[in-house]
Specification:
Elements lengths: L4 H15 L4 H7 L4 E5 L4 E3 L7 E7 L1 E8 L2 E9 L2 E3 L2 H6 L6 E4 L3 E7 H10 L1 H27 L2 H11 L9 H8 L3 H12 L1
Antiparallel strand pairs: 1-8, 2-7, 3-6, 3-8, 4-5, 4-7
Helix pairs in contact: 4-5, 7-8
Length: about 200
């Protein structure tokens, strides 16, 4: 897989500037703090019990975060391409993560560190604004998912998932999607079969 870092970096900067304007100086500096990574499927990027001091921009591929309960993987988050990600709690607090982040597919990433991100925040208010707005977007999505888990039926959760992430159904294992939706594999299979008719 041959990928040009300038192309990947431009895609990331296009996203950032669509969220909030950046100065030319900030754009030039941001480009220097990320490193291109090609990561194979089923690679652990972050491991529970370790402190997560990295942030990534996912250019291509699919990831999920999960924790283990009684030896079973419980998916908590699905990350699609063209967006930054990390384990925010560990990244912000510098405490060990209680979750893992794993690649579901071969992925093309840009990687940076907490220290470099904070340097950008301190140097450029416009970069800090982009970071805040991205964190707010994560919070809104997490809050919507939590509300759905508490109050929506299994069918409503499935319908919402298909509406928001229609192509993921063919890119992830059904057991991982089921755990993300908080339903059993059997319930997921029943709803999936009913909707395929």
């Amino acid at each position: 897989m041959k990928i040009n870092q300038d192309v990947v970096g431009k895609e990331m900067l296009n996203l950032f500037t669509s969220i909030s304007p950046l100065t030319d100086e900030a754009i030039a500096d941001i480009s220097t703090i990320f490193e291109l990574k090609i990561v194979k499927k089923n690679t652990l990027l972050a491991k529970e019990g370790t402190k997560i001091n990295k942030m990534w921009f996912l250019y291509e591929g699919l990831l999920r975060s999960f924790f283990l309960k009684d030896g079973r993987e419980c998916t908590t988050w699905i990350m699609m391409d063209k967006f930054p990600f990390t384990n925010y709690k560990s990244f912000i607090t510098n405490e060990p993560s209680i979750e893992n982040i794993i690649t579901v597919e071969d992925c093309v990433l840009l990687e940076t560190t907490r220290d470099k991100v904070h340097q950008m925040y301190a140097k450029y208010h416009c970069v800090e604004t982009v970071g805040r707005k991205i964190a707010e977007m994560y919070f809104v999505r997490h809050d919507a998912h939590l509300h759905s888990m508490l109050f929506a039926s299994a069918e409503e959760r499935y319908d919402d998932f298909i509406t928001k992430m229609p192509d993921i159904i063919d890119r992830m294992k059904s057991k991982d999607i089921a755990s993300y939706l908080g339903i059993s594999k059997e319930t997921f299979s029943r709803i999936y079969s009913k909707n395929k008719k």
